[in-house]
Design brief:
Blueprint lengths: L2 H9 L4 H24 L1 H26 L7 H29 L5 H38 L2
Helix pairs in contact: 2-3, 2-5, 3-4, 3-5
């Protein structure tokens, strides 16, 4: 990698979608460890499967949104979002079906706790992004005022 590419990779902020997906995965693993320690191995892997049932479809949607398209217009982005969201929904249903069919024994409460916890990370990502924008706006105003 040449010097300019290395500078760009260090200077470019991480994709917010990637940050959210990694946070979902980290929370899923941490929650699975807690369930494993408190309620046993069945609850632990059930919570992990619940988290993965959220993370994998979200990764599909994220890929649909960030992959370059032939048409860079807004219409193509909207189509990609619709297809991504439909695919995400289908993958979620498919994964829950597979888990409930193939995984025995299963702790349903831990499974849904893992899924819901991972899903809530998405909303916290939106809140963090808004907080980041507010702090940027405040710092820009203070720089204009010389403070």
């Amino acid at each position: 990698m040449d010097g300019k590419a290395a500078e760009r990779s260090r200077a470019a902020p991480a994709n917010p979608l990637l940050k959210i997906l990694l946070a979902q995965l980290a929370l899923s693993m941490a929650l699975a460890a807690v369930f494993w320690g408190v309620s046993g191995s069945v609850a632990g892997y059930s919570a992990l499967l619940g988290g993965l049932t959220c993370v994998i479809p979200n990764a599909f949607l994220a890929l649909r949104l960030v992959v370059p398209r032939r048409d860079p217009g807004a219409g193509a982005l909207i189509r990609a979002a619709y297809i991504g969201e439909l695919g995400k929904l289908a993958l979620t249903v498919l994964m829950f079906g597979i888990v409930f069919t193939l995984v025995k024994p299963l702790a349903a409460g831990a499974l849904f706790a893992g899924f819901i916890a991972a899903q809530l990370v998405t909303f916290s990502g939106f809140l963090m992004r808004d907080d980041h924008r507010e702090s940027e706006t405040k710092s820009e105003k203070s720089n204009k005022n010389g403070k």
